[in-house]
UniProtKB/TrEMBL annotation:
Name this polypeptide is given: Protein Wnt
CDD domains: Wnt_Wnt11
Keywords of the record: Developmental protein, Disulfide bond, Extracellular matrix, Glycoprotein, Lipoprotein, Secreted, Signal, Wnt signaling pathway
Main location (coarse class): secreted
Any one Gene Ontology cellular component term annotated for this protein: extracellular space
Subcellular localization: Secreted, Extracellular space, Extracellular matrix
Length: 354
């Protein structure tokens, strides 16, 4: 009788995390939903990957919202990788959804960033969908209560941040709230960092105006409250990621709470990202730690930042290569109304880590 094949250590590791950690970002697997798939019947909700039962129920009750949430999942992956492209950790492991590697499930500062970004993105995408008319059950945000300055008036279509936060929170926090996790510390960390992401979104609501007047005099401005672009919010969260605070789970009063590990004389601040476990340096490939390493990554020889060849390549050195770029050049505007350009080639030198 043949013996059953044994799972690989990495598979065992993945199963261990799946059962020990209450993951709130498995819904990002929605990013893999085929574009041709329509979510217009309640039975479609069970076909979606990465959802817990509470999220499936939310799907059934809000079918119209699901295409927007699927769009948000795609935005999280794209924005995470773009925002971290100049660092050793470049969010590569988000592609393994929904079977995440340790860098996103082990209570690291990287998981803190992804949870915050995910929470901000889903609410941002829903709020913008209300404004654009993509959702029937919400519309423009409310007119502000304060009186506008002289020469200003309220108008336009404000981003519906209230509805975005309401529905985004219900969906993204559902996995952490549906039942107790074996790791209460991870659960508290993920809920805290998700709220930090939403607070960054609230802080990104700004005044936007359109000018009116004779000959562009801008004597009257019609204004509304609109959200900054997601890339700007992601950069704010990246700054918080770089200054994240390591915490421990210890008794404070009548219950256990997260408190700063080295400066536990103060509580955790509402606007700071927190993490429980230190990260590897991400220099070398190590699947047990969720590190893909930096071998073969492109670096910037003239930079002094995180994308510099010295830091990106971890002192291993780098190899140069040349690349020929074809670009538009010598463009001319013709009256009226078109532009013609020539195509020019130029050779640039690139560098990749050994």
């Amino acid at each position: 009788m043949s013996r059953p094949s044994q799972p690989t250590p990495l598979c065992l590791l993945s199963l261990l995390w799946m059962f020990q950690v209450c993951s709130g970002i498995k819904w990002l697997a929605l990013s893999q939903t085929p574009a041709s798939m329509s979510i217009n019947r309640t039975q479609h909700c069970k076909q979606l990957r990465g959802l817990v039962s509470a999220q499936v129920q939310l799907c059934r009750n809000n079918l119209e919202l699901m295409q927007t949430i699927i769009q948000a999942a795609r935005e999280v992956k794209k924005t995470c990788q773009k925002t971290s492209a100049d660092m050793r950790w470049n969010c590569s492991s988000i592609e393994t959804t929904p079977q995440y590697l340790p860098d996103l499930e082990r209570g690291t500062r990287e998981s803190a960033f992804v949870y915050a970004l995910s929470a901000a993105t889903i609410s941002h995408t829903i709020a913008r969908a209300c404004t654009s008319g993509d959702l029937r059950y919400c519309s423009c945000g409310p007119i502000p209560g304060e009186v506008p300055q002289p020469g200003y008036r309220w108008g336009g279509c404000a981003d519906n941040l209230h509805y975005g936060l309401l529905m985004g929170t219900k969906f993204s926090d559902a996995p952490m709230k549906m039942r107790k996790s074996r790791s209460q510390a991870n659960k508290l960390m993920h809920l805290h960092n998700s709220e930090v992401g939403r607070q960054a979104l609230r802080d990104a609501l700004e005044l936007k105006c359109k000018c009116h007047g004779v000959s562009g005099s801008c004597s009257i401005r019609t204004c509304w409250k609109g959200l900054q672009d997601l890339k700007d919010i992601a950069m704010d969260l990246k700054t918080k990621y770089l200054s994240a605070t390591k915490v421990v789970h210890r008794p404070m009063g009548t219950r256990k709470q997260l408190v700063p590990k080295d400066i536990d004389i103060r509580p955790v601040r509402e606007n700071e990202l927190v993490y429980l476990q230190s990260s590897p340096d991400f220099c070398h490939r190590n699947e047990k730690q969720g590190s893909f390493g930096t071998q073969g990554r492109q670096c910037n020889k003239t930079s002094i930042g995180s994308d510099s060849c010295d830091l990106m390549c971890c002192g291993r050195g780098y190899n140069p290569y040349t690349e020929t770029l074809v670009e538009k050049c010598h463009c001319k505007y013709h009256w009226c109304c078109y532009v013609t350009c020539k195509r020019c080639e130029r050779t640039v030198e690139r560098y990749i880590c050994k």
